[in-house]
Recover the amino acids of this structure.
C-alpha cells in the first residue's frame, strides 16, 4: 500500500509534465546493489535501461556497472570498478549498439546526518574508452534524504530524495553535464528500497527530463557472518 502511495504522489506531481511532452521525456529503469563479501569488502552491482522516450521500447543506453567496494567505516567507502555502456540511436532498427563505451571508474563516498536529514557526498573519476577515443571525467554529487513518516530512514520509511550532480571533463568542453533529481523512496525491508522520481539533465546546450524507477537490493554473500 505504501509503494502505491509513493507512485500515486509521483504521478500527481509529475504526470502533467511528462504527459504533455512525451517525446521530450525519457525513461530510466534502474537496479543498484551492494553485495557484502566480508566485513570490509562488498561488490557493487548496477544495471540501467535508459530509453529515449517514456515508453521502455526505444532504448537509448544500456549501462552495466560493477566494482569492488572497501568500507573504511559504515558511512565511508571507496570503489574501483568497470562499466560497459551501449549507446543506441533514436528509432534505430539496429539491434546492437551503434557506439560502445568501456569505462574504468574510481569513487569515494561518505555520508553524514544532521537531525533527520542525511547527506551523501559522492566523488567519482572515470576513464572512458569510447571507440577509438579516450576521455577522462570528474563527477561530484550531493544528495539529500529526508524521511517523511519516521525519524530516520528505516524499514517502512517513506523519504524524499534530492540531488545535484556536476560532470567536468579534463580537457575541451570543460563542462560536460549537470543532473538535478527529485523523487520519493520507500524502504520496503532492511535491504530493499523502491524509488521513483524525475531527473533533469543539461548537456552543453541541450536539456531533457527523465522519469526514473529504481530498485535497490543489497545482499550478504558471506557463508558465515563475521
Amino acid at each position: 500500500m505504501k509503494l502505491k502511495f509513493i507512485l500515486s504522489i509521483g504521478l500527481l506531481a509529475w504526470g502533467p509534465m511528462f504527459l504533455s511532452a512525451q517525446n521530450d521525456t525519457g525513461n530510466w529503469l534502474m537496479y543498484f546493489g551492494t553485495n557484502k563479501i566480508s566485513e570490509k569488502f562488498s561488490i557493487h552491482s548496477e544495471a540501467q535501461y535508459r530509453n529515449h522516450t517514456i515508453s521502455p521500447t526505444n532504448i537509448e543506453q544500456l549501462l552495466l556497472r560493477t566494482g569492488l567496494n572497501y568500507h573504511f567505516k559504515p558511512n565511508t567507502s571507496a570503489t574501483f570498478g568497470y562499466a560497459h555502456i551501449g549507446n543506441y540511436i533514436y528509432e534505430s532498427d539496429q539491434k546492437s549498439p551503434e557506439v560502445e563505451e568501456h569505462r574504468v571508474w574510481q569513487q569515494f563516498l561518505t555520508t553524514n546526518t544532521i537531525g533527520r536529514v542525511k547527506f551523501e557526498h559522492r566523488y567519482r573519476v572515470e576513464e572512458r574508452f569510447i571507440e577509438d577515443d579516450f576521455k577522462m571525467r570528474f563527477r561530484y554529487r550531493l544528495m539529500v534524504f529526508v524521511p517523511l513518516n519516521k525519524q530516520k530512514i528505516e524499514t517502512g520509511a517513506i523519504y524524499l530524495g534530492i540531488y545535484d550532480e556536476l560532470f567536468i571533463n579534463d580537457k575541451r568542453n570543460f563542462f560536460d553535464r549537470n543532473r538535478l533529481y527529485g523523487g520519493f523512496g520507500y524502504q520496503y525491508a532492511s535491504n530493499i528500497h523502491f524509488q521513483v522520481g524525475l531527473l533533469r539533465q543539461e548537456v552543453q546546450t541541450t536539456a531533457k527530463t527523465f522519469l526514473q524507477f529504481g530498485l535497490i537490493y543489497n545482499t550478504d554473500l558471506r557463508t558465515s557472518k563475521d
Observations:
- The chain has one domain: 2-219.
- The two ends are 36 Å apart (CA to CA).
